[in-house]
Sequence to fold (426 residues):
Amino acid sequence: MNKTKYLLLASSLLGMVAISGCKFEFRYSTTPYPFDDVLPDDDDDGGSYEVKVWCDTSILTLTKTQLASFEAVNNGKYKLTFNVEPMSEGEAASKMIQDVQLGADVFCFAQDQLASLKIAGALGDITGNMALGVKSDNPKGAVNAATYGDTLCAFPMTSDNGYYMYYDKQILSDTDVKDMSTVIQKVKAVNKRINYPVFSNAFYSASYFMATGCYSKWTVNPKTGNFVSYEDNYKEKGLKALKALRELKAADLVAPNDQTNKLGDTAAVAISGIWNYKAAEKALGNNLGCCEMPSFTVDGETFHISSFSGYKLIGVKPQTDGKKASVCRKIARYLTNQECQLQRFNEVGWGPSNLLASQDEKVLAQPGLKALAEQLPYSQEQGLMPSSWWSNCATLASSVKGDSSDAQLEEALSIYTSNLDELLGD
Fold:
């Protein structure tokens, strides 16, 4: 077996409070994994197959039920034996890349892992009428998240991988939460905390920098998986973000986590996503508020705090049997249809990507998803970046002190920028 190093940004946004980057040793045989999965519009004549499926533990039972329904709606065309195993999105991607042949036939993963999975040969292409259907059923952002180059190679499952503000209505009004300085003052007055990993985790740290117009865009070599170039303007646009973080740091209110279960106890605010909605609701009940991120003002200029947005996807592994590949794509298509996405929403609260499902009355009325939708115009899609970029950005934010001078903030930006060239070739 040869070993080649590629990059994987491992993330699981359900039940996680962090996004982190890791490197893995990818194993592949000297002879590329053979497959022949090109069938016109996934036209197959049925048959018997064993299909391995990986999904998050929280939807394990539901997924088994949905797979049984797939067989039923096909009126006996397929005789399928499903092996459904619990696997987080980040872990699934890691295992698929390390050994594609031993991996699942159908698996869930987060969008930032798509390029690594495609380069490793773990994702087949989706073409023909099936691709047209996926594109018509989902918003442009979801389709882009499932596309590598010009080719669709995954099925959008959710559009909820972002964060917003949870708050205690007994402490903060609907007007208070619009401005970060006001939030700081109100929370400090009642001796509570703001649970927000902004100084320790770049997934959240970047929210301030993106607010002032910062971006870091990286280009990967599609053959090797190495990063070959980047565009980054943090040094030019990041000073005002650091000044705002200095104000937040000086308040000495921020807890380095997004533990929504602490709301009503030690915290009045938590920055997190839909994966923690049930914990927040349990903690505050009718006093729970959900809203888009607030704004901050620096040097007379106001900026709306940004966030990352993202999607969960379902991938299908290429197969040696083209007919099995066709069946697996149909399974993935079924698991991401309107009905199945609404079932996941009703059971675990995941936000649908399907356009019709996202307009369901219950989905529209869900406070967390409503806040996420309001935050969306201020968010940036999470792209593929070197794993070390995340630690570089987190170090930049963590360097801020309550009494940091402007010169010290500028020096921190210089250090961040000087480290970027070292990330090329990762």
Remarks:
- The first strand starts at residue 2 and ends at 8.
